[in-house]
Design brief:
five-stranded mixed β-sheet, 13 helices, eight-stranded mixed β-sheet, single chain
């Protein structure tokens, strides 16, 4: 069976070490290269849709998380506070929302600032029991693609619809195949904050944003501060988990006393929309490794092109092609060790999308022969043409290996 832990080890994507601690994986160069490509893409997608990026620390004063309600509702999932002195205690944050609320109130806000879309790929921590940890799917240190849209109640429908659009766009580029949408609602019990009218309004807004899409309802699955839409994926073992999410929150704006001045000069409370387009980098990659069996789309493959000179006579031509590929922004390696057949097999085993073979005839003519990861071999072509072809696939963030028609 496909298992991201085994593939992650074979492909050199990540490792773990008992000395580092369970649930604290180490991303190796290949995994870091793929993750950086994905992070840059997500940041770019967010920037183009009007998000502003911030950077906030992964820990904060105990009082911050008392105010946010996390220590009241969520303490079991948090690491215990760290005491620096009698009146100075810090906690590793279990979420980014409290810091983003402080970003919002770092200055006065007017209706002209809204919607204010604050985004960050930031660290947070969960005190998961060691028995449930495994590879990248359950970890204690989480790098979350997170964001908070502060908006008026009238803007909520449009904000949620825009978030769902961005989620679909990101899924298409990454090759994510969502298993379904889930509307998580309040269940019986006392663990929820906020009044009934707010909950009813929030649920109504989310239902409206989902209009026309198939979705399932999950009573009792809402966050303690509001209902949410989760986008589920299924791993190779058939386990379902949440990858992307959009959640409404009427509670934190109250707790942090967030406000804006409306067009008539009155002070109003914004709504906070929590959203993650692709979830945490850890869970995302656990999923992507399995769904692609390690063969990532070319745009985030750790190595995109491996150059294979047939023998030492083509070393110069191979280096020249590699330099041109690097200058074009591609991640490229030259492999000279061993027989050509073995190197072609190694490249396929490492899931490198393109092997550029340079024999004596190709070198003399300034050409290269492209072999695709799936076994297809293209006619020898001028080196510049090969770079254009690969550049088109990468630039379009295509899932296939030939330029989209
Ligand atoms: Zn949040």
């Amino acid at each position: 069976m496909i298992d991201h832990r085994r593939l992650g080890r074979e492909l050199g994507l990540f490792t773990s070490d008992p000395l580092a601690g369970a649930g604290l994986p180490l991303w190796l160069p290949a995994g870091a290269a793929a993750r950086h490509a994905v992070e840059e893409y997500v940041r770019d997608l967010e920037r183009r849709s009007g998000h502003q990026h911030v950077l906030t620390p992964p820990l904060g004063k105990r009082e911050l998380f008392e105010l946010s309600g996390h220590l009241g509702y969520f303490a079991d999932d948090m690491f215990p506070p760290m005491r620096l002195s009698a009146d100075d205690e810090f906690v590793l944050r279990p979420a980014l929302c409290p810091h983003h609320a402080l970003v919002y109130r770092s200055r006065g806000r007017s209706w002209r600032d809204l919607p204010l879309r604050v985004a960050e790929l930031g660290g947070m921590y969960r005190a998961e029991r060691s028995g449930v940890l495994g590879g990248l799917s359950r970890v204690r240190a989480i790098s979350l693609n997170d964001g908070h849209n502060f908006c008026s109640l009238e803007q909520v429908g449009e904000e949620v619809a825009e978030v769902l659009r961005l989620i679909r766009e990101a899924h298409a580029a990454l090759g994510v195949r969502p298993a379904g949408f889930r509307l998580s609602l309040r269940g019986p019990g006392e663990k929820y904050v906020g009044d009934d009218a707010q909950w009813a309004r929030a649920e109504e807004l989310l239902r409206a944003a989902l209009d026309g899409m198939p979705y399932a309802e999950g009573p009792g699955e809402a966050a303690f501060y509001g209902p949410k839409i989760d986008i589920q994926v299924v791993d190779a073992a058939g386990r379902e988990s949440t990858l992307s999410t959009v959640q409404l929150d009427f509670d934190k704006p109250e707790r942090f006393d967030l406000s804006y001045v409306d067009s008539g000069g009155a002070r109003r409370r914004p709504v906070m929309v929590h959203r993650s387009l692709v979830g945490s980098m850890e869970r995302l990659f656990a999923y992507l490794i399995e769904v692609h069996e390690g063969a990532f789309p070319a745009w985030y493959a750790p190595v995109q092109v491996v150059v294979l000179p047939v023998d030492a006579g083509q070393d110069g031509a191979a280096d020249g092609f590699a330099a041109a590929a690097r200058a074009a922004g591609l991640r490229v390696e030259v492999d000279r060790a061993g027989s050509l057949g073995a190197r072609v097999r190694d490249a396929a085993r490492a899931r490198v999308p393109y092997a550029a073979v340079v024999g004596p005839r190709e070198a003399a003519a300034g050409r290269i022969s492209l072999r695709l990861r799936d076994g297809r071999v293209l006619e020898p072509m001028p080196a510049a043409e090969a770079l254009t072809l690969i550049g088109k696939v990468v630039g379009a963030r295509a899932v296939g290996l030939l330029p989209p028609a």
